[in-house]
Amino acid sequence: MSAEYAVGVDIGSSSIKAVVLSHKGNTPKLISFGSIAAPSPGITSDNPVDLEMEAKAIKTLIASIKSPTTSVVIALPESKIFTRVIEDLPFLSDEELASAIRYSAEEFVPLPADQVNLYWQVINRSKQQNFTSVFVIASPKNTVNKYLKVLDLAGLKPQALETELIAATRALVGNNQYAPTTMIINFGAGSTDFAVVSKGTIQLTRSIGTGGLALTRAISQYLNFEPMQAEEYKKVYGLLEDQLGGKIYQVLKPLVDVIASEAQRVVQAYQTKNPQNHIKRVVLAGGGAKLPGLVIYLANVLGLEIQEADPWYFIEKDNNILPKQLAEAIQYTVAVGLALRTE
After folding, report:
1. Does domain 1-81+138-174+314-343 have CATH number 3.30.420.40?
2. Model-level pTM?
3. Which helix (H) or strand (E) covers residue 75, if one does?
């Protein structure tokens, strides 16, 4: 049963999303999906009681979508891990590369080597040109153990753990060697994550601690609203300068400018090292991507084509799943990407 189906569970700070895909045929097929509000403080806490509440919520969600398997693929948040593309290595064998990466990781991982798990993927390697570039992920063991503990409490088995950006890339670009070089911006509740993808491979990543919750808090403080009311105003008015006298626009603009400025830095950093391979488009994912006016605002700032993510593009859907349900489900990008993992 478990080989035929894959379940992706995206454990976010404000909500938990899950997607069930069938891999019986040539094209993955959507079986079910759903979400549930994440308990607070939930997964961000180390308190056993809070982790039990998180596990209970996940268990409830898995039951509600009628998952045919207890094996799941989950993602670790970019804010809790350390990633880096290392490009200045000579041509190395796999054994030499393992040693070089452990040494290089000391430069960007602020933890002792025995406290992290290291994973890497070779991006390019040429003996003739004497270079190797690799995408390196360092995940703190205590973070990994906490997620594994929550899964165990929920009665689930980890099929795999990976990063949110790897999952988002799989959902939005896949392994398409011919897709234009793309910057993915995953606009989550607690952070905004950036990945540049070229020829189906992640070339550069960044993450900043400004996300949807920061925007909601800003509105709440400015208008003295309860968080729920502030969230609704954010969803309705967003960056629409001609709505509500521009009040919400003025509150949100400085925070969105932080995200836009980081996006500009990512574009500049990538294109400085890859002058012959410019970023052609930006794909917005995550719940914050639906912020009214965001697409036009970023297009004006970045001067690039901006698209909202369609995580369901590569997936077969049943007729009983309404297009409106899928259109409103951009926040499922990570969960879809997790469920698309087959190895």
Report:
1. yes
2. 0.91
3. strand 71-76
